[in-house]
Amino acid sequence: MLTRIDHVGIACHDLTKAIGFYEATFGLVVVSRETNDDQGVSEAMLKVADAPAGAQYVQLLEPLSPDSPVGKFLARRGEGVHHVGYGVADISAALKSIGGAGVRLIDSRPRHGSMGASIAFLHPKDVGGVLTELVQAPPPA
Amino acid sequence: MLTRIDHVGIACHDLTKAIGFYEATFGLVVVSRETNDDQGVSEAMLKVADAPAGAQYVQLLEPLSPDSPVGKFLARRGEGVHHVGYGVADISAALKSIGGAGVRLIDSRPRHGSMGASIAFLHPKDVGGVLTELVQAPPPA
């Protein structure tokens, strides 16, 4: 069902500073920068690698406000890994299967994610404490 | 420098139960199970995907004792993402470059990791709160 680790989502206080760190230290390159008002974040996708099943990214997330989900995460836990995103070929089928296995779905239907992807989150309490995201990449342009 | 997201390391209280969950819910398959006395963990590697630069895994970690690093992590934060492992082609060169950029190295020289890999950890305080591992895969058999 899972085709790859699509990205690791990392919460940070200062997006520009975090981007600079990942660029300078690890040689990653920003391929997308977006503001997602729905999720209350300003974010950047930095490419780690290309692969046949789709690229892999570090996703850096700065909250737009302290009362957004990422803002609350930072207040509670500090900077660090916020979630893990896995690629799937068919997100609707994956949600049906995973929901059927008893995992609570934060998004019962896919919504818009970074770079045109369809995404959905699973409840961390049902995934061993890991906020887990499914990602279906957009069709090739 | 980074060739892929090699794995996401996830701390759990009960390795057998966590393996069963990832197998049943996401269809992952255990490819290795080891006890690492140095790190104080019993662990399993579950393959997410193969790729030209190397496979990607979910690594499940159960502490061997409460006073091991993963045991202390669980006591402090509960189950969840413990670290992120990135593939590198040459771990010694990567450590030299990253250490030279001012990141403190938990392991200044590579040591033995899962499935014959050479690994080294970077200090999370210098990597935005993320315990970061470098992984150089063993040469093909």
Topology of this protein?
Two copies of one chain form a homodimer.
Chain A: E1 2-11, H1 15-26, E2 29-36, E3 41-49, E4 56-63, H2 69-77, E5 80-88, H3 91-100, E6 111-112, E7 118-122, E8 132-136
Description:
Two copies of one chain form a homodimer. The two termini of chain A are 24 Å apart. Chain A has an eight-stranded mixed beta sheet with strand order 2-3-4-1-5-8-7-6. The first copy, chain A, has helices spanning 15-26, 69-77, 91-100; strands at 2-11, 29-36, 41-49, 56-63, 80-88, 111-112, 118-122, 132-136. Chain A has 141 residues and is of the alpha+beta class. The model of chain A has no long low-confidence stretch (mean pLDDT 95). Chain A binds chain B through residues 1-5, 7-8, 10-12, 18, 21, 24-28, 48-49, 51-53, 56, 77-81, 84, 86-87, 98, 101, 103, 124, 127-130, and chain B through 1-5, 7-8, 10-12, 18, 21, 24-28, 48-49, 51-53, 56, 77-81, 84, 86-87, 98, 101, 103, 124, 127-130.
How many H/I helical runs of chain A?
Answer: 3
Q: What portion of residues of chain A belong to β-strands?
A: 35-45%
Q: Give the number of DSSP strands of chain A.
A: 8
Q: What is the terminal separation of chain A in angstroms?
A: 24 Å
Oligomer status: homodimer
The gyration radius over C-alpha positions of chain A equals 15 Å
Low-confidence stretches of chain A: none
Mean pLDDT of chain A: 95
What coarse outline of chain A follows from CA principal-axis ratios? globular
- Main sheet strand line-up of chain A: 2-3-4-1-5-8-7-6
Most extensive interface between two protein chains, with residue counts? A-B, 39 and 39 residues
